[in-house]
Amino acid sequence: MKEAYQFNCWMYLSRRAAAAVLALSFFSTSLLAGADTGSPSSVWVISSGEQKVYLGGTVHLLRPSDFPLPEQYETAYQDADKLYFETDISGMSDMGTQARMLQRLTYQDERTLRSVLNEEAYSALASHLETVGLPIAMLQKFKPGLLISTLTVIEMQKMGFSPQGVDAFFNTRARDDGKAVGQLESIDDQIGFLEAMGEGDESEFILLSLQDLEKAEMLEQMIDAWRIGDNDKLVALFIDDMKERSNDLYQNILVSRNNHWLPMMEAMFSQQGTEFVLVGAAHLVGEDGLLQLLAGKGYTVSRLQGASE
Length: 309
What we know:
By secondary structure, the protein is of the alpha/beta class. Helix content is 53%, strand content 10%. The chain has one domain (2-303). Strands 4-3-5-2-1-6 form a six-stranded mixed sheet, with helices on both faces.
């Protein structure tokens, strides 16, 4: 009976972490930011001759008050024949995916949080879990990536956020409207990012992550910066901080994935129709961001203008 209860809790929490896999791309000075004089937005047009691809920065968890989205998102959606997301959003809720996630993101050997964390990190974690009503004994087998992602989503839900972010909103719209959808990477790829987080440096990762959970005011600033397309602010709040804290995480979560997505986006210019690519806002900005990478390849990069402009 105890094992069944624990399994059900793990499954419940891993569903929360499924949303957090996507949230990784956003929560943690672009050269292009000052070059455009149009109205701020986080939707861009990437052009090559007469061919174009829309590129939109997203936040994967939002509050009801954050809707409706800026009008540029609707403009790009209406003009697009196919939408691309980071991964298969619908597939994230599949029970088989949830079981696979649980298998990969929990320790399957003798390791536990008690054995991989030092006393300082374990004590801090136990104290935090007590404040959210989760006994640490129930989570002993959680790997750090699953644990912190779960706690992040719980914290955000307490603040009124839900998994109905930009991606989920347009994924549902596209399927209801019969628009084609595609993915830039597999669900297993995304699970792999969580699986590797904190590996080999678990205590420091947990301590830094618990500190971040206390910075609710930064979340508001990030949402505001995303909404008006303030690339400089996003770099300062997210990119610079991630580089300083963990360059390895920056390379794995942002740089390597951007470089992997770049040729996929370039291939879209030779396809029929118009694509709308939606990825975490942090992937767009900074010297290693998609906007800079695409500009460096010779594509024309400009903000999508609003209807009133």
